Amino acid sequence: LACEDYKKTESDLLHRKAEQIYKAFVQSDAAKQINIDFHTREATARKIKAATPTCFDEAQKIIYTL
After folding, report:
1. Comparing C-alpha atoms, which of 26, 20, 31 is closest to residue 58?
2. pLDDT over 90 (residue 1)
3. Would you tell me the Gene Ontology cellular component terms (predicted)?
4. For residue range 8-53, what is the model confidence (pLDDT) as tens digits?
5. Which end of the chain has fewer CB atoms surrounding its CB within 10 Å, N or C?
6. What are the extents of the domains in the chain?
7. Would you give the DSSP letter of residue 66?
8. C-alpha to C-alpha distances, 28 to 8, 11, 12, 36, 57, nearest whole angstrom
9. How many CB atoms lie within 10 A of CB 52?
10. What pLDDT is recorded for position 66?
11. What is the DSSP secondary-structure string of 5-58?
12. Is the pTM of this model over 0.70?
């Protein structure tokens, strides 16, 4: 749900929102850490630096297939 909301975010707010989602769900010590592999976690960390609307797509696909 957070990723779907993120995709609708205005471009000037994407970076800040990407950081918030990463810290809340993706980083290895996140309070609500999602179940993704190390490779996907690292790839997502790199992608949020560019903060595009699709930077969480790979992680989202993995979660949907669980």
Report:
1. 26
2. no
3. cytosol; plasma membrane
4. 999 999 999 999 999 999 999 999 999 999 999 999 999 999 999 9
5. N
6. 2-65
7. -
8. 26, 26, 27, 10, 18
9. 15
10. 78
11. HHHTS-GGGHHHHHHHHIIIIISTT-TT-----HHHHHHHHHHTTTT-TTTTHH
12. yes
What CATH number belongs to 2-65? Answer: 1.10.167.10
Which long-range contacts link 26-31 to residues 24+ away (Cβ below 8 Å)? 26/56, 26/59
CA distance 43 to 35: 14
E strand or H helix at 60:
helix 57-65
